[in-house]
């Protein structure tokens, strides 16, 4: 009888020990799960903070670039540039023109690269819509022309064409703004695009740059 009681007590002791071991494993698993979750959450929060910080830095850089003056840039009073739609030829005081009366149909300016000269009266209408117009003459190095074609080809509200009579080999124009650059790698190229593609000088921001006139 005593042996049976001893056996029962041992069995209960083993069961209790197994229960304690199981509870200990559960506690360890909970601790591991909580720790891993904390690490994951902290990592996500840290990554999210990094992304936000990076985005804020990029936005601040873009805003700073948009406010910074561009060296040797020429400006005209946008309010004094005519904006009438005309069907007769227009003589512009600068070449390429940066504004003035123009034809009612704009040049397509959604990453358009024109190999031939385009009508000024149509190109000016594109500037009114917030486009940047890249122009070059025979003195522009072929390698620079190619790089600028690639940039225009990736940038909505920009277009490019040759203008043989212009003073500088490579020039960039927006409504009321113009600069002659030294080449495709001139930092003023990116600065001009950042500042004036749909920039604050735009008389008609958001107006179409497609469904206009294409290369003839």
Main attributes?
6 strands, 4 helices, transmembrane helix, single chain, 2 domains, DUF3105 domain-containing protein, Glutaredoxin, six-stranded mixed sheet, membrane, alpha/beta, 216 residues, 12% strand
Brief sketch in words of this structure:
This protein has helices spanning 2-67, 120-128, 142-152, 187-196, and strands at 74-75, 110-113, 132-136, 158-162, 170-174, 177-181. It is α/β, with parallel strands linked by helices and 216 residues long.
What does this structure look like?
The chain is of the alpha/beta class and 216 residues long. It folds into two domains: 1-67; 74-196, 3-Layer(aba) Sandwich (Glutaredoxin), CATH 3.40.30. 44% of the residues lie in helices and 12% in strands. It has helices spanning 2-67, 120-128, 142-152, 187-196; strands spanning 74-75, 110-113, 132-136, 158-162, 170-174, 177-181. The protein has a six-stranded mixed beta sheet. A hairpin with a 2-residue loop joins strand 5 (170-174) and strand 6 (177-181). 27% of the residues are buried.
């Amino acid at each position: 009888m005593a042996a049976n009681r001893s056996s029962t007590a041992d069995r209960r002791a083993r069961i209790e020990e197994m229960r304690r071991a199981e509870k200990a494993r559960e506690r360890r698993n909970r601790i591991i799960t909580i720790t891993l979750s904390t690490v994951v959450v902290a990592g996500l929060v840290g990554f999210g903070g990094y992304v936000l910080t990076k985005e804020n830095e990029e936005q601040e850089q873009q805003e700073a670039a948009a406010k910074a003056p561009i060296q040797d840039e020429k400006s005209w009073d946008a309010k004094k540039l005519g904006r009438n739609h005309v069907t007769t030829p227009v003589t512009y005081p600068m070449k390429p023109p940066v504004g003035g009366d123009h034809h009612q149909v704009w040049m397509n300016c959604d990453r358009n690269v024109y190999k031939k000269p385009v009508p000024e009266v149509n190109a000016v209408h594109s500037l009114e819509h917030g486009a940047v117009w890249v122009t070059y003459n025979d003195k522009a190095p072929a390698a620079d022309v190619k790089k600028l074609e690639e940039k225009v080809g990736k940038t909505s509200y920009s277009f490019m064409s040759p203008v043989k009579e212009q003073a500088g080999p490579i020039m960039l124009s927006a409504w009321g703004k113009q600069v002659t650059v030294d080449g495709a790698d001139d930092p003023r190229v990116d600065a001009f695009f950042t500042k004036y593609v749909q920039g604050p000088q735009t008389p008609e921001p958001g107006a179409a740059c497609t469904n206009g006139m294409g290369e003839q």
